[in-house]
Amino acid sequence: MIYLETKNSVATLLLLAAALGCAVAVAHERKRGSIGYIDRTGQLLVTSKVLHEAGSFSGGFARVRLHENKLYRYGYLDRRGRMAIAARFDWARNFSEGMAWVESEEGRGYIDGRGKMVIKGEYKDGGDFSGGLAAVRFERGFGYIDAKGEVVIPGKFSSAGKFSEGLASVGSGGKLGYIDRAGKLVIAPRFEKAYEFHQERARVVLEGRLSYIDATGKVVIGPLKKVARAFDFRDGLARIRVGTRWGFIDRDGGKVVPPRYFAAYDFSEGVASVQDEKGWSSIGPDGKVLLRMGPDWLMAFSGGLAPVIRDRKVGYVDRKGKLVIAPRFLRGFRFSEGFASVELE
């Protein structure tokens, strides 16, 4: 399947983040305050009630959605808080490898950091560049183009994913498999779902069961019995849910951290934030508690800081639990390229 962020899916992806102030890698949509960006000291880069949606910084730019004169348009902020690329797009994606997919009255295609359309074609949709290639949707199927806009893999697939570790998932004959950068099917289509490779493992659904495969297509973990949900490997561990409890498995499938937590985030920067009967804490890869936060909701670390909810406001703590940025935001998200989006009263 093509893992392109669709125009109608952003609100759905944000449900959990909006309710809990979670630090997730999706766009931050304004609810009732004003949106802005802070640096790692808490200093505001920019804030405005005109900003309706704020994405993470990627490639030096943050995709933002402005609401002006009853119109919603996408544009891009730079790291100085300036509108480097005017909000003139009906739809836009994050920058990847120097380009971003946009849609407007000018047409559909990829712009560069100056906002100039550098790749324009008869594409219905386009994904992020990865390793010099991007998935695009033609009239009759999905294929891939290079950074010059040349078609390198024809549009012959029913779906197409982003390349990761040299492979990309594609749809053919009602199933999903994987191709290499030359477009050769190296893992035959036999999966109902197939995700990106991370740390030499990819999540798949085979005959209705969750599993992980290696780069040859061999099932190396699974089928995972009683596992309701599973996520990608981060820092050598993957988050899983068994019943209502969360835990972590290693690349061989062993339950390094047994499923005993009410809630958990993926490992990031060597630690994972989890919740048990004693409240929120940060654990290491061996499951040992490194930091106790009690009732304060501790989210995932990024750039050495983690958002924390205290008295219904969001602030940021360091790895020792010290408050670096006092809780004063309605919502706060993870840091990316030195900045995090926040919402103020």
Summarize the structure in short:
This protein has 345 residues and is mainly β.
What is the number of E strands?
37
State the oligomer.
single chain
Give the radius of gyration.
21 Å
Q: So what's the overall shape? A: flat
Word description of this protein:
It contains two helices and 37 strands. The chain is mainly beta and 345 residues long. The strands form nine sheets. It has a five-stranded antiparallel β-sheet, with no helix packed on it. The chain starts with 9 loop residues before the first helix and ends with a strand. Residues 1-25 have low confidence and may be disordered.
Keywords:
5-stranded antiparallel beta sheet, mainly beta, about 5% helix, disordered N terminus, 4-stranded antiparallel beta sheet, 37 strands, about 350 residues
Indicate the topology.
Layout: H1 10-13, H2 15-20, E1 28-29, E2 34-38, E3 44-48, E4 51-58, E5 61-68, E6 71-77, E7 83-89, E8 91-92, E9 100-104, E10 107-111, E11 117-120, E12 125-130, E13 133-137, E14 142-146, E15 151-157, E16 159-160, E17 168-172, E18 175-179, E19 185-191, E20 193-198, E21 201-206, E22 209-213, E23 219-221, E24 227-234, E25 237-242, E26 245-250, E27 257-261, E28 263-264, E29 272-276, E30 279-283, E31 289-294, E32 297-298, E33 306-310, E34 313-317, E35 323-329, E36 331-332, E37 340-344
Antiparallel strand pairs: 1-4, 2-3, 2-37, 4-5, 5-6, 6-7, 8-9, 9-10, 10-11, 12-13, 13-14, 14-15, 16-17, 17-18, 18-19, 20-21, 21-22, 22-23, 24-25, 25-26, 26-27, 28-29, 29-30, 30-31, 32-33, 33-34, 34-35, 36-37
